[in-house]
Amino acid sequence: MKIQAILAAAVASAAIASPAMAQDKSDWPESFTIGTASQGGTYFAYGSGWANFMAENLGISGGAEITGGPMQNMALVHTGDLSFGLTTMGPARESLEGKSPLAPGMAMDNVCAMFPMYETPFSITTLASSGITSIEDIPDGATIGFGPSGSTSDTYFPRMMETLGVDFERRNGSWSDLGGQLQDGLIDVVAFAAGIPIPAVSQLEVQTDVNIIGMTDEQAKTITEAFPVSEFVIPASTYQSLEEPSRVVSMWNFAIANCDAPESLVYEMVKLTMENNDKMVSIHKAARTTIPENYTKNNVLAWHPGAARWFNENGYEIPESKIGK
């Protein structure tokens, strides 16, 4: 009986990896790297965990690289400096149209979608001691941290604040660094755009009292009409500091690949990700929406052929016209 139990366990542990074993790996790289963002943000936690999950089951080494976030990841994946990355649909569209501030005029069209990740809510955090409990309370000339330069937050949140009539001084930095500056009183507000729960916010509220600020119905309507975002509600259970759900806006994130990445490798990566949501959620809670049904949220990028093959095989229709060459 003991031998049978051992054999059963071995079969179970191999169940995830076995499909990859049947693939022709002749064009697979020995290792891979995925572009994420700064430490303290969701991209880095999600991307690092995903890379380890892929490496454990595909027989190649993998890891995450700290980058400037979605806009820079589009550039790095387009040029082939990185084979994989994480991006947000707004920066992806601007990069595809040649409007990236990192390379104006360059249409980054060698980037293909792999799978849906989660929505990025745009939310504001202040110290409770500041007395700032709403967007209207932010004083003229307040110093606001918008995340790493070129990040989704840095690209869109300043424009959103201006649209809502906020006058501010701009500060950039990693989420961890900005959280520390907020706690030390060096800045007044941090305007976060990251999957929830945001590690830097969770760490902040353990160390001090914070206010997590949402939008009024009117503010949310104004922003959704002016930017490529949709309304989103942060559940009260997300943070200790929230006593009720918080209305904000959000933008979808997708994992991306260089369109020339091996089709069989991308197929296996998508298969592992889409068929093991419990594992993805154990990496980061934001992965609750890393499910195949959300493939429809991509209305910007062409699909990688390997990704499209998995979705089409499993009943999620991606037409030939939407598949990268």
From TrEMBL:
<keyword id="KW-0732">Signal</keyword>
<dbReference type="InterPro" id="IPR011852">
    <property type="entry name" value="TRAP_TAXI"/>
</dbReference>
<feature type="signal peptide">
    <location>
        <begin position="1"/>
        <end position="22"/>
    </location>
</feature>
<dbReference type="Pfam" id="PF16868">
    <property type="entry name" value="NMT1_3"/>
</dbReference>
<protein>
    <recommendedName>
        <fullName>TRAP transporter TAXI family solute receptor</fullName>
    </recommendedName>
</protein>
